[in-house]
Amino acid sequence: MGKLVVFDLDGTLIDTAPDLYMAFCETLKDFGYQQPPFEVFCKYIGGGAYGFLEPFLPSEVLEEALQKVRHYYLTKYLFKESKPYEGILEVLETLKSANYKLAVATNKISEGAVRVLKEAKLDHFFELIVGRDLPKEHKPSPEHLLYINRQLKIEPKKTLMIGDRSDDILSAKKAGAYAAYALWGYTEPLNGFKPDFFLKKPKDILTILETLAFESCR
User: Which of these, 71, 51, 143, lies nearest to 105 by C-alpha position?
Assistant: First the structure.
């Protein structure tokens, strides 16, 4: 049995908001809707494309809009202005050299997640990259994380989930894994759900793992 660190993607590993926003704005323009400010848009990142479209469009056009925003993102805006957060590369290199298993759990579709990580030259660090379309249920369901646990044969109690949204924390807590909240990302109020750790910068991950007793049961 190994030890596993699972990362959210948008707002945790990579700052993808500028590219997502451009695809989002083009989609809203197609439907004749005014685009909100960038700062407002960022509050809704975390639930995949549906999560940031739903607050701004009527339900009857959501499915068409979902296809449009994915098309624009994957064909025009993928990794135009996105970049890994400062310190992420060094953390991944350190964890890999220390024989941690690494995975990604994102509410992006898997195709988009893999392509973004390849563009960032980070994909080779991860044993699994799991989007919303692979498990039966995605974050905040525990099934998203438990799917990764089953695939890698590592128990939740030996797993640390790192993310910048309440969905990440809820998924980890329900699965029985440790949860760390990335304060450098697109954070939101946690509404009473408490992570085990708060991270001010990516290198804090290494400090946590030095003292974390994965063997202790929840």
Answer: 143
Share of the chain above pLDDT 70, in %: 97
Sign (positive/negative) of CA torsion 167, 168, 173, 175? positive
Burial label for 89, CB within 10 Å (0-12, 13-18, 19+), is: middle
The fold of the 17-77 domain, in CATH, is DNA polymerase; domain 1 (1.10.150)
- Domain residue extents for the chain: 4-15+83-211, 17-77
Which of 1-5, 13-17, 109-113 tops mean pLDDT? 13-17
Task: Name the active-site residue from 8, 10, 15, 164.
Answer: 8
pLDDT digits (tens, 9 = 90+) for 5-31: 999 999 999 999 999 999 999 999 999
- Amino acid letter, 13: L
CB atoms within 10 A of CB 170: 21
Q: Domain 4-15+83-211 is of which CATH architecture?
A: 3-Layer(aba) Sandwich (3.40)
Per residue in 178-204, pLDDT tens? 999 999 999 988 877 899 999 999 999
Asked if 120 contacts 83 with a C-beta cutoff of 8 angstroms, the reply is yes
* 123 catalytic per annotation: no
Residues 6 or more apart whose CB falls under 8 angstroms from that of 134 comprise 110, 147
Closest CA to 146 of 4, 1, 51: 4
